[in-house]
Amino acid sequence: MKVLVATQKPFAPVAVQGIKEILAAEGHEVLMLEKYAGQSDLEAAVADVEAMIIRSDKVTAEVIAAAPKLKIVVRAGAGYDNVDLAAATAAGVVVMNTPGQNANAVAELAVAMMIFMARTQFTPATGSEVAGKTIGIQAYGNVGRLVGQKAAALGMKVRALDPFLSAEQISAAGAEPVTSLEELYAGSDYLSIHIPATPQTVGSIGYELITRMPKGATLINTARKEVIDEAGLEKALEDRPDLKYAADVAPDNIAAMQEKFGLRVFATPKKMGAQTSEANINAGLAAARQIAAFFKTGDRRFQVNK
Ligand code: 3PG
């Protein structure tokens, strides 16, 4: 089978090598499309392929229509909001993710951003320490739990809320459960967001929630920029000069925000949470193995469009 690795943000070379080895060992041919300029390049590259490995690359209905032989798309990573699931399902294309494989990289970035903001972006201005502070974790999945563990090791109090976990499950996984988002935001010196972008979550974090945060609090978003109501965030930062925001990746209104709020706002220029060679190897090789297993035995374990 022909497998296209389409990555606008390429994997580390060591991960690409591993992907090629796994797939070649099963008799598959690997085609590479890295740092491509636009969707038309992607649409042209899929014409003859049976499988794709992607990152945040956009697999739209147009891409699926341009790939008549396509059987499977594996998103090497957690969030699959970049894939048109309805179009894939209608075309009989299996979509998978590789849950947990890049979680540690994202969690380390969230913790790093927390300390970076506590130390006023490493400027000489007086900062603060995170030990003894409370972190609230919005969604206690693979990334959220790792953030919780690392924060606990830093001496922080860890609280969490997850719509898919009971209070008992959250306690058993090491955090103090809270019963509502309002309570989570109101009690968090640092609030780390780990929800996916879905029709229910897009734009769901805005002025009302953000302004519940206590004095001097910082909101950290290593999930998706789309979950933030950017106008609400901007107004919250205007009305509450004590609040801060750090994000991977930049909101659309970043230029205005940085001009208005200076060191109170930080954003990575390109999403980099999962951009470590370890995460690239974990997620990339998992994707290759999932494709190999799918074609060999029909294994659909990580399918997300069923
Ligand atoms: C994910 O959903 O796994 C992360 O956001 C990583 O995205 P990336 O592969 O584009 O870095």
What does this structure look like?
With 306 residues, this protein is an alpha/beta fold. It folds into two domains: 2-101 and 275-297, NAD(P)-binding Rossmann-like Domain (Rossmann fold, 3-Layer(aba) Sandwich); 103-267, Rossmann fold. It contains twelve helices and twelve strands. It has helices at 13-25, 39-45, 61-65, 85-90, 103-118, 142-153, 167-172, 181-186, 207-210, 230-239, 254-261, 277-297, and strands at 2-7, 29-34, 51-54, 72-75, 94-97, 134-138, 157-161, 176-177, 190-193, 218-221, 244-247, 265-267. The strands form two sheets. The chain has a seven-stranded parallel β-sheet. Strands 2-1-3-4-5 form a five-stranded parallel β-sheet. Helix 1 (13-25) links the parallel strand 1 (2-7) and strand 2 (29-34). Helix 1 runs parallel beside helix 12 and helix 5 (103-118) packs across helix 6. It is elongated. The relative contact order is 0.15. The mean pLDDT is 98. Residues 9, 55-56, 77-79, 102, 271, 273-275 line the site of 3-phosphoglyceric acid. 3-phosphoglyceric acid binds next to loops.
Compile the SSE list and pairings.
Elements: E1 2-7, H1 13-25, E2 29-34, H2 39-45, E3 51-54, H3 61-65, E4 72-75, H4 85-90, E5 94-97, H5 103-118, E6 134-138, H6 142-153, E7 157-161, H7 167-172, E8 176-177, H8 181-186, E9 190-193, H9 207-210, E10 218-221, H10 230-239, E11 244-247, H11 254-261, E12 265-267, H12 277-297
The structure holds 3-phosphoglyceric acid (3PG).
